[in-house]
């Protein structure tokens, strides 16, 4: 492949729109058959501006797809015990089908303990250890939304992963770690990189697929991208900048996600699809 070639963009808006359309049709069918529409509870602790925006965006997308949302804005002073109580209450509320705890919740909250208070059948954001284990063993359950969205994006662009070397940069519980497990399930050979990785550029240079999930603007340099690689940039930094140096990476990659418009829309689409699936299963509706 010529080094002056420009990569094809891995647009996420089109595939996301198709997922949302399907979720909306299913939500409408649930309403018609049960008289109730799917409901996502969103829980926010404090008023972090980025988190407020994310939750607002997710609720707006829900509304457009015929999914109700119930928002709980808790004060920044909320304790872990109070948050757990709230989540346990929502887990038992039959009118709520999915629960999203927006994170980060603040340094004083034991986030892991809070996530575990979400009932697995309502864990539409795929954050509990039970959901993670189910995903790892390829058992039924909800996947973490961004990793799930990345896999659906790869599928939409016909990327064959079997035998490919995938470098996942980042190992968070909601993104890096699960996306690595999902790539492994598709027979990729996966290398996890993180802040202590000795030679990140060297590993990226060997990778057929790079997933950047760090939160450091332009950490992945274009010159390190293997010619012909597939580059997924999940990073989102101030100023609409990803974790990959897009302008140089696109001269070497075969496929590359734009930021924004790549991974972001897929994440929300998976959240909506999983909320509708959760409602269908709780209300006893078979999928067609
Ligand atoms: P996180 O919890 O802060 O994890 C960041 C990871 O990057 C950690 O594993 C960390 O390593 C690693 N890291 C930090 N500096 C590094 C370096 N210099 N070299 C290699 N690895 C390094 O972040 P996150 O929640 O996974 O999110 C990551 C990015 O994705 C952020 O930009 C976030 O905004 C974005 N995001 C986007 C979406 C979406 O829908 N598009 C959804 C979620 C997150 P250690 O483990 O060693 O600390």
Report on the architecture of this protein:
With 288 residues, the protein is an alpha/beta fold. The chain folds into 2 domains: 34-119, Rossmann fold (3-Layer(aba) Sandwich), CATH 3.40.50; 145-264, Rossmann fold, CATH 3.40.50. It is built from 10 helices and 9 strands. It has helices at 13-34, 49-64, 80-92, 111-116, 129-136, 145-156, 176-185, 200-205, 246-249, 263-282, and strands at residues 8-9, 39-45, 68-74, 98-101, 165-169, 189-193, 209-212, 230-233, 255-256. A 6-stranded parallel β-sheet has the order 1-9-8-7-5-6. Strands 3-2-4 form a 3-stranded parallel β-sheet, sandwiched between helices. The longest helix is centred in the first third of the chain and has 22 residues, at 13-34. The radius of gyration is 19 Å and the shape is globular. It binds NADP nicotinamide-adenine-dinucleotide phosphate.
């Amino acid at each position: 492949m010529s080094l002056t070639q420009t990569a094809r963009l891995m647009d996420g808006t089109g595939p996301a729109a198709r997922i949302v359309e399907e979720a909306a049709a299913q939500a409408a069918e649930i309403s018609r058959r049960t008289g109730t529409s799917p409901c996502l509870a969103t829980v926010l602790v404090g008023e972090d501006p980025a988190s407020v925006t994310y939750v607002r965006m997710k609720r707006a997308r829900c509304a457009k797809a015929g999914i109700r949302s119930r928002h709980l804005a808790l004060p920044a002073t909320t304790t872990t015990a109070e948050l757990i109580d709230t989540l346990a209450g929502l887990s038992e509320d039959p009118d709520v089908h999915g629960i999203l705890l927006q994170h980060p919740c603040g340094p004083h909250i034991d986030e892991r303990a809070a996530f575990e208070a979400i009932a697995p059948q309502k864990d539409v954001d795929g954050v509990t250890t039970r959901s993670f284990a189910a995903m790892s063993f390829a058992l039924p359950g909800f996947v973490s939304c961004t990793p799930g969205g990345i896999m659906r994006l790869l599928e939409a662009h016909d990327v064959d992963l079997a035998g490919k070397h995938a470098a996942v940069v980042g190992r968070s519980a909601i993104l890096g770690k699960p996306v690595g497990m999902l790539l492994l399930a598709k027979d990729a050979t996966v290398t996890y990189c993180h802040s202590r990785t000795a030679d990140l550029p060297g590993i990226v240079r060997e990778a057929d697929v790079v997933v950047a999930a760090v939160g450091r603007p332009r950490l992945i340099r274009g010159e390190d991208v293997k010619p012909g690689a597939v580059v997924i940039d999940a990073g989102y930094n101030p100023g609409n900048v990803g974790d990959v140096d897009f302008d140089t990476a696109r001269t070497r990659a075969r496929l590359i996600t734009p930021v924004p418009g790549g991974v972001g829309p897929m994440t929300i689409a998976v959240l909506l699809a999983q909320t509708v699936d959760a409602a269908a299963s709780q209300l006893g509706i078979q999928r067609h």
